[in-house]
Amino acid sequence: MTRKRGTIVIVHGAWVGGARWRRVANYLIERGHEVFTPTLTGLGERAHLSSPAVNLSMHAQDVANLIKYERLKNVLLVGHSYGGMPISVAPELLPDGVIQSIMFMDAFYPEDGEALNDLVPEPHKPSEPDGYLVPPPRATAVGFNAHLSPEEREAYEAMRLPQSVYCFTEKARLTGARERIPKKTYVLATGYDNVVFTKFAEKLRKRPGWRVEEMPYTHDLQYVAPKEVADMIESALP
User: Fold this and answer.
1) Which residues of 51-73 are buried (b: 16+ CB within 10 A; e: fewer)?
2) DSSP assignment of 145-187
3) What fold, for 7-234?
4) Straight-line distance from the first to the last Cα atom of the chain, in angstroms, rounded to the nearest whole number
5) Which of 8, 206, 185 has the alpha carbon at shortest distance from 106?
6) C-alpha to C-alpha distance for 10 and 24, rounded to whole angstroms
7) I want to staple 21 with a disulfide (CB 3.0 to 4.6 A). Which of 36, 37, 173, 199 is the partner?
8) Nearest-5° angle of CA 91, CA 95, CA 99?
9) Can you say whether the dihedral through the CA atoms of 172, 175, 177, 179 is positive or negative?
10) Could you tell me if 40 and 62 are in contact, meaning their C-beta atoms sit under 8 angstroms apart?
11) Cβ(56)–Cβ(166) under 8 Å?
């Protein structure tokens, strides 16, 4: 029987669900790790729970509650893209020491008082003035999904859903719990014109206690290079 070596929670990005990380999770499970890929409220298989009440705080609570009710310890918490927002807030909701390592994988890294919309060139807005849902941008319109074939792109688009604007407009309230995590890693994808996430990597290179790595893939690196991404995640185990 394979010995369980690590407890890993992976938080997906905007407009998708936890299934987007299945390939990476399978590699890690095969290596003996306990892996959770929760779907945030209102997305993926939990799309029926979408409402104007869905916001960053709720998604941080999704992550914290999983860790709490599964009684997880010595956790490696990973966030991809938008997932960097809830994994920044979730440590505020848990006792120090539960999360022993945190990894931002081509992900947003907010400071206290910053919303995701403060960190992008063009803020996300609802499709209708009186609505709350932000439609996903077409994969064909963004270079970081250039690795997808036409068939893969259509399948990818079919699984993406509009997301509450309040996930993008609510400001993160941080008091330092994230920085108290012993092991901290930022992974930058360098296989596309990465104007959004490079600034976080450059900032954290200068911050004590952070390890910054690069991977030569597009933003959806967990899809194009699942084995290599699994290797990178393993390198951040507590």
Assistant:
1) eeebbbbbbbbbbbebbeeeebe
2) GTT--HHHHHHHHHH---EETHHHHSPP--SSTTTTSSEEEEE
3) Rossmann fold (3.40.50)
4) 22
5) 185
6) 10
7) 37
8) 55
9) positive
10) yes
11) yes
As averages over each run of 10 residues, the pLDDT of the chain (238 residues) reads 78 96 97 97 96 98 98 98 98 98 98 98 88 83 60 77 97 98 97 93 97 94 93 97
Tokens standing for residue 140: 């064909």
pLDDT per residue over 110-133, tens digit each?
999 999 999 999 999 998 877 999
The residues carrying an active-site annotation are 81
Query: What residues does 159 pair with on adjacent strands?
Result: none
User: Where are the domains positioned within the chain?
Assistant: 7-234
Please give the backbone phi and psi of residue 164, each rounded to the nearest 5 degrees, phi first.
-60, 130
